[in-house]
Amino acid sequence: MATDVKTPFTGDGAADRLLTDNPFALMLGMLLDQQVPMEWAFSAPKLLAERLGEDLSPKALAGRDAEAVEELFRAKPALHRYPGSMAKRAHALATYLVDNYDGRAENVWHDVASGDELYERVLALPGFGNDKARIFVGLLGKRLGVRPPGWETAAANWASIADVDSYERIGEIREQKRAMKAAKKVAKKSSSSQR
């Protein structure tokens, strides 16, 4: 187990350590990082591990039926704002990793030859669209040192969780994301009014 925490995303030392030490926990946190605060999303894997009563792994989650996983997500406090749909996505992700990567999340990036290959593998994960895949490539490169040739080009080129090198940066990144969304909204409104 690593002693230094490279993923200070939650303000909870044990939760952050799990993200650094357990690739599946980090991947789950990334999956859950939508429509909830980043801290909530990345804290959920620790709580899920406690509820499982065993090591958090794709095999442990995929080995349960989808309804049992949903119960784990719905227990109080819920693991996400949308526990039912996110439980289904987490179960699908775990099953995909068991079926395609021997149940080991790190095998997604273990032998990649390029940033493009890494991006394509991450994009193929259930629940990972273009932006989430690019952010996760950046997170792997910036926080965990997974840097195949060209990873920087495949990674997101905007402020994201990948840029959080201390818990204090969360607020700053959140504000940058809000500003980016506001600018996109203004640009979209401007382009539609010009038609």
Describe the structure.
It contains ten helices and no strands. With about 200 residues, the protein is an all-alpha fold. It has a single domain, classed as Endonuclease III, domain 1. About 40% of the residues are buried.
Secondary structure blueprint with pairings:
Layout: H1 13-21, H2 23-32, H3 38-52, H4 58-62, H5 66-74, H6 83-101, H7 115-123, H8 130-144, H9 151-154, H10 169-193
Helix pairs in contact: 1-2, 1-3, 2-3, 2-6, 5-6, 7-8
**What CATH architecture would you give?**
Orthogonal Bundle
CATH class: Mainly Alpha
Please, how many domains?
1
What string, H for helix and E for strand, traces the elements in order?
Answer: HHHHHHHHHH
What overall geometry do the principal axes of the alpha carbons give?
Answer: globular
How much is the average pLDDT? 94
Topology, number of strands: 0
Helical stretch count?
Answer: 10
Distance between the first and last residues' Cα? 57 Å
Helical content (DSSP H or I, runs of 4+)? 55-70%
Short description:
With 195 residues, this protein is mainly α. The protein has helices at residues 13-21, 23-32, 38-52, 58-62, 66-74, 83-101, 115-123, 130-144, 151-154, 169-193.
